[in-house]
Amino acid sequence: MSNCGITREQALSLLKKHIKNENLIKHSLASEAVMKAVARRLGEDEEKWGLSGLLHDLDVEITKGDLNIHGKKTAEILSQRGVAPEIVEAILMHNEQAAGKKRNTPFQHALASAETITGLIVATALVYPDKKLKSVKVKSVLKRMREKAFARGANRDVIRECEKAGIPLEEFAEIALSAMQEISEELGL
Predict the structure, then answer these.
(1) What SS3 state is found at 92?
(2) How far is 114 from 48, CA to CA, in rounded Å?
(3) How far is it, in rounded angstroms, from Cα 110 to Cα 163?
């Protein structure tokens, strides 16, 4: 057992126990990949940051995506399992509405921006003729970022929080896209 309080295998098992929607599982895997890459870039704990990405939406089906409570149930489940408080807190804070306070650490900003940019990148891939991540270029992601009507659910202000984590937007988009391209088979893209 690492200092995370949970192994990746245990986390994946927990995820599949609570999440039945395949696309939500893929979103969690994409978020994990991006968080590991961001941690690597910032010299942080890749395992800890990756697990936060993998587990951040654990309660989304339980809470039916209700933003007033989404994240709280995950925090409760993970705390009871002895998961590192820093991971639990970052997960709780990825939805400020339920947390009732603002994100204030690079880890919290990174998770919120990482899990949000995955949706923008997937949406960008899906408008390509081959619908493959390998075809997506960073400049396309940044162009789509400026189009407010495109992938409306991907909150641009949250994505820009990557800068509060210490990574400029363009570099963040490159890191995120590259991380997702590395697991494109798992993502079916």
Answers:
(1) helix
(2) 14
(3) 9
Q: How many CA atoms lie within 13 A of 136 on its CB side?
A: 30
Instruction: Tell me the H-state helices in the chain.
Output: 8-18, 22-42, 46-55, 72-80, 85-93, 96-99, 106-126, 138-146, 156-159, 169-182, 184-187
d(CA 171, CA 104): 21
pLDDT over 80 (residue 2): no
Cβ pair 108, 42 in contact under 8 A: no
- Which residues does 133 contact at the CB level (< 8 Å), separation at least 6? 121, 125, 177, 180, 181, 184, 187, 189
pLDDT at 1: 44
Provide the token pair at 159.
């994505």
Confirm whether pTM is higher than 0.85: yes
Classify domain 8-184 at the CATH class level: mainly alpha
The radius of gyration computed from the CA coordinates of the chain, to the nearest angstrom, equals 15
Helix (H, G, I), strand (E, B) or coil at 60: coil
Q: CA–CA separation, 186 vs 180, rounded Å?
A: 9
Sign of the alpha-carbon torsion through 182, 185, 186, 189: positive
Contact indicator for 31, 18 with CB cutoff of 8 Å: no
- The candidate with the shortest Cα–Cα distance to 180, out of 122, 110, 113, is 122
